[in-house]
Each structure stands twice: as structure tokens, then as C-alpha cells.
Write a structure and sequence with these properties.
It comes from Candidatus Synechococcus spongiarum. The chain is of the alpha/beta class. The chain contains 13 helices and 19 strands. The protein has 3 domains: 101 residues, Cobalt-precorrin-4 Transmethylase, domain 1; 103 residues, Tetrapyrrole methylase, C-terminal domain (Methyltransferase, Cobalt-precorrin-4 Transmethylase, Domain 2), CATH 3.30.950.10; 185 residues, 3-Layer(aba) Sandwich (Rossmann fold). A hairpin with a 7-residue loop joins β8 and β9. The longest helix is centred in the N-terminal third of the chain and has 13 residues.
């Protein structure tokens, strides 16, 4: 049976190839290789047929013809043929049983070797033939390392930076450019989003490495960006987004002073921003997730909250409610036994106090509304559908966030006793 060996190689081929692959080169009947490799080869002048890879259609036509004639063919390609390489196309043209793949290190492997960083936690996105907004979904998961296979035609470093800004993650990542990996002219350099180089080689990768601590610029008075908050490693991205946070704070109608409960606090973003707006507020943040207490305290330090007025409880809400002072304001997030938590909270709420709940489902929305009304609270409800502008090829596309229902319950002020 005629066989096609598809051999991955680096920029030093054929000298850097392993002996078995070099043997295949010397004994095959037909060889297809990139022009830069052909210049280094010494084919058998009498029997071996050698072709370049351009134009590709003509090269593949010749390969198909020689394969039908029963010739042993070898195809040289960069890196791993089955990772954004020629392998997928060859599998469409030839029976899989006739193909044998010999992978070399991918550009992604070479990149992390140069960075001297483990890469089992890395994810990747290719911009070849795709709009840059395909970066949005992986960035929402806050990966520790994200490799971007840039496209010189429509997805370069400037497009990556624009997406980072639109997703409010620009402060969370260090940016590196890797150009012509494996070549004698390779270059690896860290770049700044506000001063991108103009001499970027078309053969390049961009890697985003998450910082242990987000870069914090001067903070606005209100509406802190998502990227400044440290997050739980096991559930990155599960935090109240900036636009929803702003609405929740408006619904809470924060008093100048008093007690606020943040139940199911997550990373603490809503409660901590409430403390920034009302420095005399005493916050009790309750979150049962492992590691929540130090995480919320570190976020409090980042945004400049008074540690003396912050109390973080690493437990479920029902386990600690009896220990907390009666609240003026309550935010209830997270999961758990919402009905019981809401019942106990309403019983403790001070006159004129408010309870606010962000909800994700219609069923929870209907249930909470009913429970608040039955408890004698004045109810206000709204549904929030936010889309963020996302740059795409010089234009703007809207990227929707998950819709949220917000239900607020206000405990009316009690009339003063009659004389």
C-alpha cells in the first residue's frame, strides 16, 4: 500500500530532524517541502522527485497523482501537522490509513519553552480567518495563560488589546509577542498595551499571562472595572459584572452609615464598592467558598476599604446570620436555601431597610417576588440585559452578558407610636 509520511519540522530542518525521519527523506520517491527547507536538502538526483509547496493546489495535485501510482511520498510541514497545519487538509484528500504523522514541537510548545513556564494550564485561540471577538468567551473565564495565533490580515496585537479593553481585563494580563520561533531571527519580547510595536513579524504569536496581582490604576469614584478584582481560581469569571454591580448599588440606596450584609459575597465586589461609596458603612461579607476570606480581604485592600469596618465570614449564610447585627441593607447572591435565608433576613431587617437579590432564572424571580410581598415588603423588580461594545475589524459588535433579574424589597418605615 502506498504511504504518505507527513513529517513536522522546525526552522533548522533537515539538520535538526531525528534520524528515523531523515531516513524517510532519503528513501522516499516523492518529496514535498517548503521552499526554505528545499534549499537545505540534497535529493537523489536520479530517482527522487522533489516539489515545493507553492502553489499548494499544484503540489497537492502532484502528491495525489504519485500516491495513486503507488509511490512512497513524504510531506514536510512546520510543527505538528495536526495542529493548525496541513494535516487536516491531507485527511480530507487521502484515506487516513495511508497517512502517517510525525509531529514536531508546535509553536505553542516552543513559546512556553522560551518563557520557561509550564503550559498545561494554557488555552489558545486562533484568529486566522476569524473575527477577534472570538477572544471574548475565553477571556470571561480569566485563563492563567492564553495564546493567540494572530492573523496579520485581520487579527494582530492591536485587535487583541482592543478586546482586552472591551472585556475590562486589560489590567489582569502581561502581554508577550513571540516572532519567528525556531528561526535564527526569532524574537520574544514583553509589550505594553499603550505602546505596541509597529514592526511585528507576520509569523508571530501573542501570549497573555495573568498577573498574580492586577495592575491598579487610579480608581474611579464609582463603577470599578471587572479587571481589578481578584477571583477564585476554581471559578474564574463568576462575579457580578460592573454594569450589574452599578444597578445593584442603586437599588440598595445605601444609607450614610449602618450595617450591610453581603450574603454569597463571591469576591466581595458589590459590598466592597458599597463601602467605598459609604465609608461609615459596616459590611458583613459571607461566602462559604474555600479561600474566600483572604481573597475578599485582599480585594478590600486593593480598592482602599477600611479593614476595621469589614467583617468577612467564611461560612454559609444560615450558619452565621444569628451572629450578625441587624442590617439596614442586604444583598443576597449565591445559591443555597434562598427561601430560608430570605425569611430570616426579612425578620431581622431594620425599618426602612432594603433587601436586593440578583437572580438568573424566571422561576427564582417569581418565587422571590411572591415571598417578599407575603412578608410585607414593598417590591420593585427589573430585568437587565447588557451588551458591551466589542471592536471587530474597525467596526463595533455588541457582545451580550447574561441577563439578570433584580428584585428589591423595602421594609416600610414604622409609624412612631401615638402619644
Amino acid at each position: 500500500m502506498a504511504r504518505i509520511d507527513v513529517i513536522g519540522c522546525d526552522a533548522g530542518a533537515p539538520d535538526t530532524m531525528a534520524a528515523p525521519q531523515r531516513q524517510l527523506l532519503s528513501c522516499c520517491d516523492c518529496l514535498l517541502a517548503p521552499r526554505r527547507v528545499l534549499e537545505q536538502l540534497q535529493p537523489r538526483p536520479d530517482t527522487q522527485e522533489v516539489h515545493g509547496m507553492t502553489p499548494l493546489d499544484a503540489a497537492l495535485g502532484c502528491l495525489s497523482q504519485r500516491h495513486r501510482q503507488g509511490k512512497h511520498c513524504v510531506v514536510l510541514t512546520s510543527g505538528d501537522p495536526l495542529w493548525f497545519g496541513l494535516g487536516r487538509l491531507l485527511l480530507q484528500l487521502f484515506p487516513s490509513e495511508d497517512l502517517v504523522f510525525h509531529p514536531a514541537a508546535t509553536s505553542m510548545q516552543q513559546l512556553f519553552a522560551r518563557l520557561k513556564r509550564p503550559w498545561q494550564d494554557a488555552t489558545w485561540v486562533s484568529l486566522h480567518g476569524r473575527d477577534a471577538d472570538c477572544l471574548v468567551a475565553p477571556l470571561r473565564r480569566h485563563p492563567s495563560a492564553l495564546v493567540v495565533l494572530t492573523d496579520p490580515c485581520q487579527g494582530g496585537p492591536a485587535d487583541v488589546v482592543a478586546i482586552l479593553r472591551s472585556t475590562q481585563t486589560i489590567n489582569r494580563y502581561d502581554l508577550w509577542l513571540a516572532e519567528r520561533l525556531g528561526h535564527s531571527t526569532e524574537r520574544l519580547r514583553q509589550v505594553q498595551p499603550d505602546a505596541l510595536p509597529t514592526d511585528v513579524d507576520p509569523l508571530s504569536l501573542m501570549v497573555l499571562l495573568r498577573r498574580p496581582n492586577p495592575r491598579v490604576a487610579p480608581l474611579p469614584w464609582f463603577g470599578l472595572e471587572d479587571g481589578i478584582w481578584r477571583q477564585h481560581e476554581d471559578h474564574p469569571g463568576l462575579m457580578t459584572k460592573r454594569e450589574v454591580r452599578v444597578l445593584l448599588l442603586a437599588e440598595l440606596d445605601l444609607p450614610p452609615s449602618g450595617v450591610m450584609w453581603d450574603l454569597g459575597a463571591g469576591v466581595g465586589s458589590v459590598g466592597l464598592e458599597a463601602m467605598r461609596l459609604r465609608p461609615q458603612l459596616e459590611l458583613h461579607a459571607v461566602e462559604r467558598r474555600v479561600g474566600a476570606v483572604p481573597l475578599i480581604r485582599r480585594n478590600a485592600c486593593t480598592v482602599g476599604c477600611d479593614p476595621q469596618r469589614l467583617h468577612v465570614h467564611g461560612a454559609s449564610a444560615l450558619a452565621v446570620l444569628h451572629k450578625l447585627p441587624d442590617p439596614d441593607r442586604v444583598l443576597i447572591g449565591g445559591g443555597g436555601d434562598r427561601r430560608t435565608v430570605l425569611e430570616q433576613t426579612a425578620a431581622r431587617l431594620k425599618p426602612g431597610g432594603r433587601i436586593v437579590l440578583p437572580l438568573a432564572t424566571l422561576e427564582a424571580f417569581a418565587s422571590v417576588q411572591r415571598q417578599l410581598k407575603d412578608g410585607g415588603l414593598e417590591v420593585h423588580s427589573l430585568q437587565v440585559q447588557i451588551s458591551r461594545g466589542c471592536p471587530v475589524g474597525g467596526h463595533t459588535r455588541l457582545q451580550p452578558l447574561n441577563p439578570v433579574f433584580i428584585v428589591s424589597g423595602r421594609f416600610p418605615q414604622r409609624d412612631p407610636p401615638a402619644n
